[in-house]
């Protein structure tokens, strides 16, 4: 029997594709964070390092979220061209959410 589990129950809270489960301190004083990754997040090893994140919930990777910034003003004149020299990618490779599910920021003061 298959059971449907809504994505809100498995996608971590916050702006990242993981949640911190705990931390430990190594003998040399280095702190290691222990995380639990979102089950929908992965990397495509065939893509370049800073554009290789993938979200199976969205069915998109950083390469799908790429765009060329539009320049709208230059020397006081309105222009509109695409800067093909500069490509911006999504931030899934850094485990920053693109899905907007459970992305509320938890305030530590509360």
In short:
The protein has one helix spanning 7-10; strands at 18-25, 31-37, 41-43, 53-55, 60-61, 70-74, 77-82. With 110 residues, the chain is mainly beta.
Please describe what this structure looks like.
It is a single chain. The protein has 110 residues and is mainly beta. It has one domain (7-94). 4% of the residues lie in helices and 31% in strands. It contains 1 helix and 7 strands, in the order αβββββββ. It has one helix at 7-10, and strands at 18-25, 31-37, 41-43, 53-55, 60-61, 70-74, 77-82. A hairpin with a 5-residue loop joins β1 (18-25) and β2 (31-37).
Shape descriptor: extended
Query: Gyration radius, to the nearest Å?
Result: 19 Å
Query: What is the H-and-E element order?
Result: HEEEEEEE
Q: Please give the count of helices.
A: 1
The helical percent reads under 10%
Strand content: 25-35%
- Count of extended strands: 7
The major β-sheet equals: 3 strands, antiparallel
- Please state the average pLDDT score: 85
Structural domains: how many: 1
Query: Which regions are unreliable across 5 or more consecutive residues at pLDDT < 50?
Result: none
């Amino acid at each position: 029997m298959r059971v449907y589990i809504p994505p809100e129950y498995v996608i971590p809270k916050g702006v990242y594709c993981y949640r911190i489960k705990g931390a430990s301190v190594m003998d040399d004083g280095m702190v290691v964070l222990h995380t639990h990754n979102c089950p929908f997040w992965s990397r495509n090893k065939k893509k370049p390092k800073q554009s290789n994140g993938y979200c199976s919930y969205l069915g998109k990777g950083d390469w799908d979220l790429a765009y060329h910034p539009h320049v709208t003003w230059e020397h006081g004149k309105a222009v509109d061209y695409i800067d093909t020299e500069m490509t911006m990618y999504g931030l899934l490779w850094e485990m920053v959410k693109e899905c907007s599910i459970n992305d509320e920021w938890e305030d530590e003061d509360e």
